[in-house]
Specification:
alpha+beta, single chain, 4-stranded antiparallel beta sheet, 6-stranded antiparallel beta sheet, Glutamine Phosphoribosylpyrophosphate, subunit 1, domain 1
Length: 252
């Protein structure tokens, strides 16, 4: 029902998952991540336990191949399931059950994997992987969305389009970015819009949030407010509309 990409940014250790499907709210089922631990996508006839239990196993130091073996061996339904994952060291692995609906398969390369089922054909994941590789140097969010767009243009989910999600984790247990289009005629385009909205304010605020190393976060918001105001003034000066559907900002 889905194709997805799971990646670890080598320069930072940050994790990201992007996913799209002709299925409602795919972002609520497929991506499972934890900062400095790993990222897992569980799909096809989804087992959420592949995500939740898989992350526990990653935290314990089990290798991705061993995790796949452990999860599938205990599951009588594994032939209908698909998963791929990566750990904090960049080790990755993938599994496609033999009863997943065609076209189904996966690709695993250094630091990234792409997997899908019910697809138009193998070219969907091939194009997704190719464009991700060619995007080296871009911000991880843009790189993942570019890759997914390429997969969509190659045919995507053969049933059509409905939902998509993009989730990024840095080094914390909470996401740095988590955006979803749960029911949309063009969900990947909607993710682009949401990412643009996030860049207007949210991602700047995200930089101030408390972390394990700094449980206070940034307590003086003066500088971040100045940066957001400058970006807003620049956008207005260029005559560009906001990407957001929100009502106009009201000063306090």
């Amino acid at each position: 029902m889905t194709w997805s990409i799971v990646a670890r940014e080598a320069e930072t250790g940050h994790f990201g998952i992007a996913v799209a499907s002709r299925f409602f709210s795919v972002g609520s089922a497929v991506p499972h991540l934890r900062g400095s631990i790993g990222a897992i996508a569980t799909q096809a006839f989804v087992s959420p336990l592949y995500g939740t239990d898989g992350l526990k196993m990653l935290a314990e130091g089990l290798a991705p191949d061993a995790i796949i073996s452990a999860l599938t061996q205990r599951d009588d339904g594994h032939q209908q399931r698909q998963m791929h994952l990566i750990d904090r060291d960049g080790r990755n692995a993938a599994f496609t059950g033999e009863k997943c609906i065609d076209w189904a398969g996966h690709l695993v390369e250094d630091g990234v994997s792409v997997a899908g089922n019910m697809l138009a054909g193998p070219h969907v994941i091939e194009e997704t992987m190719r464009v991700y590789r060619e995007g080296a140097g871009k911000p991880l969010a843009e790189r993942l969305l570019d890759a997914m767009d390429a997969g969509e243009q190659a045919g995507g989910d053969k049933r059509g389009k409905q939902s998509a999600a993009l989730v990024l984790y840095r080094d914390q247990d909470y996401p740095w970015l988590d955006i979803r289009a749960d029911d949309h005629t063009d969900p990947l385009a909607e993710l682009r819009r949401l990412l643009a909205v996030a860049h207007e304010r949210f991602l700047h605020v995200a930089e101030t949030m408390p972390t394990r190393n700094n449980p206070h976060g940034l307590t003086d918001r003066t500088e971040i407010d100045r940066k957001i105001a400058a970006l807003e003034a620049e956008r207005v000066a260029k005559g560009l509309p906001s990407a957001s559907f929100a009502t106009p900002w009201k000063p306090l």
